[in-house]
Design brief:
By secondary structure, the chain is an alpha/beta fold. Helices cover 41% and strands 24% of the residues. The protein contains 11 helices and 13 strands. The chain has a 6-stranded mixed beta sheet with strand order 10-9-8-13-11-12, sandwiched between helices. It is globular, with a radius of gyration of 19 Å. The protein starts with a strand and ends with a strand. The model has no long low-confidence stretch (mean pLDDT 92). May bind long-chain fatty acids, such as palmitate, and may play a role in lipid transport or fatty acid metabolism. This is DegV family protein. Keywords: Lipid-binding. Pfam families: DegV.
Length: 290
């Protein structure tokens, strides 16, 4: 059996220490802000997250770019040259065209190395949902699954990735066409916090609305209790867009609901997702039916 490597991209929000422990290479997405272009790596080597959100709060309007086929070719090829196959777990195709680009990039490599295998799988997930899924994928790989078996497992389980998050500022949802101008104005005046999730096609959808941050956080915990199964063994990732205090509070609420503190990771939401949700976004994600 050929050795293989699991690869993902920088929309998979996990703590950098966890990413290093998982030994998962990360393909960087890029973004531009105030005429500067950055590649976002989870270790923040090219622009730190705190500065990004500070510029966002001051009115900067960043733009993200998807990964093109040539970038994927350049990223995959060194592993194939080493004699390894590749399992790439992509950002949701419902939110980006990068999944299609990854398959084109893989084909470019396989034209040169026909004996190799590169499998690109649409995670249908994003942010901490993609991160939580990636964490479980590596756990399964370490159980000894070969590439084909793990690929099949990923495709079976990706429909059981649960994403629940709230946004603090409706402006970025309006800018992305998720809410109308009137909805954004009225919602902001009434302190309405939209609750969003990702549907079975990997697309962003508004599921509910809550009046105020506390009510929104209570909703996130309620959905975790409803969908999480045995909370005493459930693992989850809490994501925050530059609002660590709220993330810590949500973690304590999850513990109070029955989760184990050691099974809860807190991760920063990077600039790629942050561009579309703004500062103050709070999320919890977990995988069930494993």
């Amino acid at each position: 059996m050929r050795d293989y490597v699991v690869i993902s991209d920088s929309t998979a929000d996990l703590p950098i220490a966890v990413v290093k422990e998982l030994e998962v290479p990360i393909v960087p997405f890029s973004y531009s802000i105030e005429e500067q272009v950055y590649e976002y790596y989870l270790d923040e080597r090219d622009g730190d997250i705190g500065s990004f959100y500070e510029r966002l709060r001051k009115g900067a309007m960043p733009v993200t770019s998807q990964i093109n086929p040539a970038m994927y070719q350049d990223f995959f090829e060194p592993y194939v040259k080493e004699g390894k196959d590749v399992l790439y777990i992509s950002f949701s195709s419902g939110l980006s065209g990068s999944y299609q680009s990854s398959m084109l990039g893989a084909d470019m490599v396989l034209d040169k190395y026909p004996e190799a295998k590169i499998v690109c799988v649409d995670s249908r997930s994003a942010a901490v949902g993609q991160g939580a899924f990636l964490y479980e994928i590596v756990r399964k790989k370490r159980e000894g699954l070969d590439l084909d078996a793990l690929t099949e497992w990923v495709k079976q389980i990706r429909g059981h990735v649960h994403h629940w998050f709230m946004v603090e500022d409706l402006f970025h949802l309006k800018r992305g066409g998720r809410v109308s101008t009137v909805e954004a104005m009225v919602g902001s005046a009434l302190k309405i916090k939209p609750i969003l999730s990702v549907d079975e096609e990997g697309k962003l959808v508004i599921r509910s609305k809550a009046r105020g941050t506390n009510k929104a956080m209570e909703y996130l915990i309620a959905k975790t209790v409803e969908e999480g199964g045995d909370l005493s063994t459930l693992r989850a990732v809490i994501g925050h867009a530059d609002c660590i205090e709220k993330a810590e509070k949500l973690k304590q609420m999850a513990v109070d609901a029955g989760m184990q503190a050691d099974n809860l990771m807190i991760a920063p939401i990077g600039p790629i997702i942050g561009t579309h949700v703004g500062s103050g976004m709070l999320a919890i994600a977990f995988v069930t039916n494993m």
